[in-house]
Hints:
Elements: H1 3-6, H2 12-31, H3 38-52, H4 59-66, H5 70-82, E1 86-91, E2 94-102, H6 104-124, H7 134-148, H8 166-171
Antiparallel strand pairs: 1-2
Helix pairs in contact: 2-6, 3-6, 4-5
Amino acid sequence: xxxxxxxxxxxxxxxxxxxxxxxxxxxxxxxxxxxxxxxxxxxxxxxxxxxxxxxxxxxxxxxxxxxxxxxxxxxxxxxxxxxxxxxxxxxxxxxxxxxxxxxxxxxxxxxxxxxxxxxxxxxxxxxxxxxxxxxxxxxxxxxxxxxxxxxxxxxxxxxxxxxxxxxxxxxxxxxxxxxxxx
Length: 182
């Protein structure tokens, strides 16, 4: 456990960020033997599920689904295409759009990666009782609630000077905030 979470002063934002970083590193390491990064895994696993449901999404649709920037999805898709895992084709209904599909090799690698990540998640969620525990279901529900909540202001809007700065939000667990307050 980190010092920030031990003393109880860490903010939820800081803890979510730290957990996200920790899990991203763990997934990166777990899928590296399959030739994937965490971001590539997110893309192929999402594409796998969408294809299984009968969808052949555009890069834009996949970006919306994953929460990744469209330009980043395009870059990832090109790299995955070069690796033989993804096919990129123009959408016959919209020549500006590019549709994505996993190749047979891509489906095989993705199935393996999903199994590896599922095992990793079981280990990462062990403190809550594992992947199928009541605590994990509650945790997942709470995270989904936060993700579904609309933002009051656009992400690029400046912060109100009378409110917290980004550093205050991240580093409140120490006594080194920019204004000398905790």
